[in-house]
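Hey all, quick one. A colleague (J.T.) asked me to put the NAP job into the tracker so the inputs and the structure tokens live in one place instead of scattered across chat threads. No bug as far as I know, just bookkeeping. Sequence used:
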Amino acid sequence: MNKDNRVILVTGATSGIGLATVQNLKNSGFQMVLTGRKPEKVEACAKEVGVPGYVLDVANEASCETVVAQVEAEVGPLWGLVNNAGIWLEGDFEGHSTSQIRSVMETNTLGTMFMTHAVLPGMFERKSGTILNVISTGALYCRKNISVYAGSKWAIRGFTGCMEAECGPKGVRVMGFYPGKVSSSMYDTAGVPRDLDIAMAPDDAAHMINCMITDEKNVWGQLSARSLSDYA
Ligand SMILES: NC(=O)c1ccc[n+]([C@@H]2O[C@H](COP(=O)([O-])OP(=O)(O)OC[C@H]3O[C@@H](n4cnc5c(N)ncnc54)[C@H](OP(=O)(O)O)[C@@H]3O)[C@@H](O)[C@H]2O)c1
């Protein structure tokens, strides 16, 4: 695969899986674009990795459309999009506020749809593109205490499968990656610290994303993965 000039944008790339993915794919030769919602983090991470950085809140559709247009004008047409931005919410459903519920659905679900909506016209015109959605094993089963997070990801599981069928004939791959526990700051940020000794490293998740993206003749519809130590 000739990766020169292949521009890939990653959302939520200021930490965890997103940041590791930008670094990993850059090392593979892609032209990466790092995005995140906090300007100071975007600036620091983009500088550290050595790629262009843009402030992008995926929950805001105007931000999605504007930043995609800006990146395509300044860096180049988008060959790839990794919809990675996401937040965790845990606990009994009745204990969540409606604003917490809205926030998870807007980031995890609508954010993925808004970004996909923003990049697709260009990809269809070029008859080429790759969209990889970072979903979760939480979209493969049901259990208590994760109703909103799981609901947000189950929605994207359905969206990804439908878009895989709809976009494939137009030359655009849409794929879903379903990691189990990853040792990122996601749980800490949500105020529910976890022992992540048994979790997969963000670099390992990034490696799998790289495999899915670079195998360009094939569509990896659903790849789920857990660290071996998570089975102990
Ligand atoms: N960690 C796990 O065990 C696990 C397992 C399965 C799936 N996942 C999924 O993997 C993805 C990445 O999570 P992670 O584990 O790497 O966690 P993380 O380190 O917390 O990274 C999440 C990223 O998303 C960003 N973000 C949050 N809301 C955003 C918004 N509205 N617009 C743009 N960016 C936003 C965060 O930026 P801020 O600093 O601004 O908040 C952060 O950079 C998520 O979709 C998550 O659901 C994680």
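Adding what we noticed when we looked at it: The chain has one domain: 7-231. The chain has seven helices and seven strands.
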